[in-house]
Design goal:
It contains 13 helices and 8 strands. By secondary structure, the protein is of the alpha+beta class. Strands 1, 2, 3, 4, 5, 6, 7 and 8 form an 8-stranded mixed beta sheet that branches. The radius of gyration is 22 Å and the shape is globular.
Length: 339
């Protein structure tokens, strides 16, 4: 069937080409997202990949599977995007009354965006090769995608192709037009960087997705946010919790700094929130809405992705309103708490 589709697509049959690539589109988009850290950029890269594949199908020599060839094309498009720097960098103008405490450090990942779980449906762990070192849920987590953005492009490519997708060293070298020795060297450096950025594998594992334990912890966090209760919120955090808010480069580490931030910034001026539970990157997430003091309406105030470790929250990453549409969340909601 695949050979027949290739023959027909090479002859200019668009329907045959769409049928040929359709089984791989979702996983290719996730591949581009890991690479670029932006759901919007990933969609653009996927479209460029499909166009390049359609135009270059005559050069497909069938020495590998169509899936492997498509990954080679997608990787090339992503590397081009990184080199050209034609990326959506979202400017951020803090509000006039925004006066945050001194951050622990500055982490510049201004293009980072969350990825809706809805787009992960249908993509399983069956696809990676036997050499893959990360399971699907680990390789789409926000911490993993953030760490990838700190790698140089070639190291990023080699690590994703080898440790996430499980391609063999020789396949990766051919896909990137480099030697196996170069690929192995890049992989070694990339692994070292990720090891320093990611939590230890021995760390307490989070509760299962949408398990009773996860739902209970998410409900507690939602209550703390909706009641502006700093003490309750801090009590749910790990000692080394990370608080980030792309595209602003501010990063806060530790319960004390996180508590200070919520007390002086997030809950300033008697702010009151309403949260809408959703999911991003295989993790719980909240659409945040502010009560209008004049009543009657809730105004969107971004999306917060929650990272869990054991029975605590180990990271909170808040994104701006521009990401809400991908999660089906509006800019305003009626405020049912007003009379």
């Amino acid at each position: 069937m695949t050979n027949d589709l290739i023959i027909r697509a090479r002859a200019g049959d668009g329907a045959a080409f769409r049928e040929l690539v359709a089984p791989y589109e979702r996983e290719l988009e996730i591949h581009c997202y890991r690479f670029l850290g932006s759901a919007a950029d990933a969609q653009d890269a996927l479209q460029e990949t499909l166009l390049a594949a359609w135009q270059g199908l005559g050069g497909f020599e069938e020495r590998s599977s169509i899936r492997t060839w498509l990954y080679r094309v997608a990787t090339s498009r992503c590397l081009n995007a990184l080199r050209s720097r034609k990326r959506r960098r979202r400017a951020s103008e803090p509000p006039p009354d925004f006066d945050p405490p001194e951050p622990t450090r500055l982490l510049d990942v201004g293009w980072l965006e969350p990825y809706p779980d809805l787009l992960l449906e249908g993509v399983t762990d069956d696809a990676p090769g036997p050499d893959a070192r990360y399971e699907m849920h680990e390789a789409v987590s926000l911490a993993f995608v953030t760490a990838l953005q700190l790698l140089p492009p070639r190291q990023r490519a080699v690590l994703i192709l080898r440790d996430v997708l499980g391609f063999h060293a020789a396949e990766v070298a051919e896909m990137l037009d480099i030697t196996e020795q170069s690929a192995s060297s890049a992989l070694k450096r990339a692994r070292s960087t990720l090891q320093a950025q990611l939590p230890s594998v021995d760390a307490d594992r989070p509760p299962g997705p949408e398990s009773p334990e996860e739902r209970a912890l998410v409900a507690q966090l939602a209550h703390a946010l909706e009641t502006s209760d700093v003490d309750e919120l801090v009590g749910l955090l790990t000692d080394d919790v990370l608080l980030r808010m792309p595209p602003m480069p501010l990063e806060y580490q530790g319960r004390d700094l996180a508590g200070r931030f919520f007390g002086t910034v997030a809950f300033r001026n008697d702010r009151r929130y309403h949260v809408v539970v959703t999911r991003a990157n295989g993790q719980p997430a909240f659409g945040l809405y502010l009560h209008d003091p004049r009543g009657g309406i809730l105004h969107a105030n971004g999306l917060m992705v929650v990272t869990l470790r054991g029975d605590r929250v180990s990271a909170l990453t808040r994104f701006e309103n521009g990401v809400l549409a991908r999660f089906g969340l509006p800019r305003t909601l009626p405020d049912d708490t007003t009379g």
